[in-house]
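Sequence in, structure out.
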Amino acid sequence: MEVGFSLRSEAVGAMRTAMVSAENLQLSLKTELSQEEQALTLSSRSPTETHKVGNEDLKEMLESNKESLKLEAMKRVVGLIAKGKNASELFPAVVKNVANKNIELKKLVYVYLVRYAEEQQDLALLSISTFQRALKDPNQFIRASALRVLSSIRVPIIVPIMMLAIKEAAADLSPYVRKTSAHAIQKLYSLDPDQKEHLIEVIEKLLKDKSTLVAGSVVMSFEEVCPDRIDLIHKNYRKLCNLLVDVEEWGQVVIISMLTRYARTQFVSPWKEGSTFDENNEKAFYDSDSVEKEEETEAKPYIMDPDHRLLLRNTKPLLQSRNTAVVMSVAQLYWHLAPKHEVTIVTKSLVRLLRSHREVQYIVLQNIATMSIQRKGMFEPYMKSFYVRSTDATHIKTLKLEILTNLANEANISTILREFQTYVKSQDKAFAAATIQAIGRCATDISEVTDTCLNGLVLLLSNRDETVVAESVVVIKKLLQTQPTQHCEIIKHMAKLFDNISVPMARASILWLMGEYCERVPKIAPDVLRKMAKTFTVEEDIVKLQIVNLAAKLYLTNSKQTKLLTQYILNLGKYDQNYDIRDRTRFIRQLIVPSEKGGALNKYARRILLAPKPAPVLQSAFKDRDRYQLGTLSHSLNIKATGYQELSDWPAVAPDQSVRNVEVIEPVKEWAPLVGKAKKSKSADKFYSDNEDEKEEKGSVSSGNEESSSSSSSSSSSSSSSEESGSESEEESSESEKTSTDSGKSSSGSEGSSSESESGQKKKKKKTKKLPQKKSKPAAAHSESDENGNGPVANASSSSAESSSGSETESEDDSDSDSPTVQKKKSDVKSKPKVEGKSKKEVSLLDLDDFSPAATTNAPKSAVLSSSLLSDLEGLSLSNVSPDIQVTTPSFGPVTTYELLHHMTGKGLSAKYHFPRQPCLYQPSMVAVQVVLTNSSDHSLEEIHIGDRNPASLNIHCFNTIERLEPEASVTVSMGVDFSDSTQAANFQLCTKEDQFSVSIQPAVGELFMPSTMTEEDFCKEQGKLLGMNETSETITMATANTSSQAISKHVLSAANVGVVSSSQNNVHRFAGRTVSSGALVLVSLEMKESSCALLTINTEKSVMASMLLRDLKQALAQA
């Protein structure tokens, strides 16, 4: 019996299953059939009818009794919304399902209602009771969705209900619901601003929330509702700083922006005593003697507020964020809040963002353009990152061009101008025109290349492209205003090209130049006016105005020739169609032509029309943008956008910091002893402990970075790591303040160098006693690496330090991080002198390209041209010129001797130096210098050696330590200095056992060359490759006694270390050389003219050096 019953029940179950599947099958067939019918009748129906048919099906599904159909229908409806289609007709059918118990269905209904509640307010109001019930639903997502829908109904009558719901949600146990309540605050405030006070109470409550999910949303509400209520942030400041790493990305952006404004009102400026952070701050000798007295008497140095440091420390790991907005926010925070020497740490992160999309590149480049005006040094090592690519859009190209122009200085102008020469040939006309303007800016900013740029722009006047020619004319006009007396030839050349130029702005510019300097070209200006009188009626308005001006100026200066022409042009202008031209014509006629009525003005006509005009200032379009906060819409548009909040100025006196103290808050208790502990260990262990701390700091920062990039990290570990790293960076900043006041020492690693010199003093004594003081090559090489620490080890460390420093004041985190490695390498070299080659190879690996694009190793080169140099000189063909430099014996008298240290300043030690003009034995890129040290005192001097260099990256080969120098005794020592093809002085310290003296070697530009021998044919060939901006020439007047070949050679060779090139022409003298550091070719030619005049031409890529050499040679040849 039981078996039969069970069989019967199984049969019933099978029947039911079959019936359900049949119904589903029927439904699917019906759906497919309706789709087929729609497809067949699509041609006869309009799209709206088709849409209605589709909506009717969805309505039927939503009103059916089966939840599976309703769920399917809601999925389709949400899909329509996502595609941007209108589904508002379904609102009544959807609202009916708002009380459904199926959670999945309810979520989708709420998504729909959030979208259309504002449009269908009346129907949404009918369901308010349902939403209120849903606010107490056990499911957190339903509670949050109900609040989201309720706040989306924009009807003032339900404001009290919304207010109550927000207050309840703010106290909810779920952080997701609390986050939603923070979003609802902004909606309610925009609906009814009168609720502001009640909403501020809720914001104050939510700001105390410890959840990272809520932090970003409530700060956004704070910024919308009450951004001026800074007092609400005081108690939550430290908590927000510590939570920052774990907040979601867009929350991080909002919090950082708010904290930037907060910090500007609560902390004093870290820039007041910027000099204390400047490691290149030079002081006179007497200042350095009295450093201790100054430290005692001067006011207490700037000490950063611990909360200020906490903010900088906890935002630093976010520079590694994958979100570009977060990186940009941190960059602007450091720019507006950090000490100047710490801002450089954002440089690499900003350059990294340039690999992103065009939109991101555009915003980042705008901000870099603003930064690079004030801090060129920040981005100079990454200059190659701003080179224009062919795939870049025009607006990206223009911004990169702006930045390159901002970064231009005497050292890199040659490279930048070479890059600009390529850009001028671009097919993008707007970009080519912008490049010509950039060349003009470089010419005004750097006086040494003004003539070079003018010559290049004049060559562009022959270009086939009208846009290039027109822009060149406009820029030349502006440049000529700065020094018109010297450029009559250029004005004449432009007048010859006038007929071929058709762009109105260019024609107007040439006419303005003719009128302004008509007295300098008295023969050409009237003829140009004659041509213009013929074509006056067909010219553009801007050209007609300049023709009238030209006629008036010529009438005043040369009325005999131009009186009739002027009357003719004024008559034509009197009846012109343009009222501006008619008015200008009447005004000019009354001004220049004497009459009874207008006699009063006629006296002043010349003063009005021919008044000296100030030269135009060519400046960056981003010069004034720093008045807006970086990264904001206002900064991008260069106008104040709606809702923009200006950064306040730093307070003169810091407000009370105790307002940020919170009772029983753990992070504060942990933080304070950590600082004290770190400082204690540092003072006890000095140098080595400092390096270990640096390593720990690096590790903690990197771990913090990993935590910020991974969503699974815990907030406690990240905050502790950020606190640890921050305490170290705080110590570094305070340490830099102390050490940078020393005149001779740089702020990075000064303690290390001093402790090393103390500990290594005895070792040096022993070594120098064992080693004989010979000038032999092996001994010199040995002393280079072992004793002075200036061999491969020091070179590598200096180049890495140079690469890591983005500016003159570099970030200590970067510069100090190299010191443990370098110290270890030094000790290895000292203990194992035989393994010198190996250590060289290891240290050179430290110079990583991705650390700094501009880094080059200083290892000794086998050939004169290194591989790095060849890459720098890429594009120059040197095939026919022998790269070997043959040194020639100077044919003039004794070399010039310069004073390095006076015996009064040096307490009895005097030093003089001269340039022997021989290849440097230690390194081919160095200039050889011989120093004569004399003891003028009555007691012996001990341990004379080279101390600190300034900058620290300066590459010098030092002489061996002189153990003892007797009274009235002298000794000659050899040094090598890498000036990097610059006449900038090499500053270093000359030390004895008791004293340190700051000295500097200033090279004349002629000492930076080595003579090169070549044939006349090779000379002419290479000269042909170095034209345009690579050529500098001037007509000079020589002294009568200097016109013979022998005298010319003598004076040129005395001024510059170059070689004589044999010439087949008697009136042409040629000389050739190469720069010592980079090996760039320098060609000098002197072509004799009539009487004592000569054309002096210098061809080289180094345009700044060319200008300086031209000046020196001109002076040498003019002297009797």
